[in-house]
Every structure is written in C-alpha cells, then in structure tokens.
Amino acid sequence: MFTESNPFSESINFSPSVEPTPDDYGCAVFDGENYFQISECRYSVSEERLVYIYVILSNFTRYKRSEDGSAIYLFNCGICCKNTNFIDCTSISGGGGAIFNSFEITNNATFDDVNFIRCKADYGGALFISASSNLFNISFSNCNFASNSANLA
After folding, report:
1. Which is it for the CA torsion 111, 113, 119, 124, positive or negative?
2. pTM for the whole structure
3. Do the Cβ atoms of 120 and 90 come closer than 8 Å?
4. What is the largest CA-CA distance in the chain?
5. How far apart are CA 96 and CA 102, in angstroms?
6. Consecutive H or E run containing 29
7. Which residues contact 50 (CB under 8 A, 6 or more apart)?
C-alpha cells in the first residue's frame, strides 16, 4: 500500500556570489617506480632520471601566474598531455602562458588532442619548451592553437 506524497516544490535559481576557481589540476607523476597525483602541476627533477607528468582529460581555464607556466611548470620532466584544454592562461612576466617545460636531460613531450586558446606570456604565448639535450622528442597531434600571443618579439 502506497502513502500519499508531498507535492513537488519549485526550484530556486542558483546565483554564485564568487567566481569558481579551478582546483582539479589533473596531473600525475610517474618516476619510473611510483605513480602519484600532485596537487599542482609544478614539478622539477635535478638528477638524471626519467620522470613523466601525465595530464589527461583536464581543463585549465583562467590560470594566471607572475612566473613561467601559469597552468604547468616542469623542469627536466617529460610530459604526456592528452584531451586537455588550456583557455585564457596567462604568465604575466615569464614564458609559456599555459605550459613551461625546460629540459637539460633526456626526455620527451607529447601533446595529443590539446587546445591552447587565448593564452598569453612574454614569450611562448601558449607554451614554451626549451631542450638543451640532444636526446629529446617533442610531438603534437591534433592540437589547436588559437588567438595565443607573446609580448616579446
């Protein structure tokens, strides 16, 4: 036997009082032995070893920093970035509006199905990659670069 239920009430429109800020960075590290999440996509390696940062199915929107790489900063780390968006990311006084990656040791950078839209920096509007090692591979597949800009020529 069923009992009578209460009538459905009207919904109230939601209006956030503050703009949401991104808090899901979507970065993971594999150092050859361990796999772990990091709370921010900023990682450096000082010794000669292969370390990869994985960024998969992530969205970095309106990131802003005063230094290099507003969304991701890497030093001596490889990166595998897939199905990810970088939109309106800004490095105010540095390189790589969205991503800064500098290699002094052997490593790789792979970007598949990544969108860089309206990113800004002093140099490397969307991303800046510097490799002083002769043993590196950088590849882009199905990536979109739209309306990115660099201040220094």
Report:
1. positive
2. 0.80
3. yes
4. 78
5. 11
6. strand 27-30
7. 31, 32, 78, 106, 107
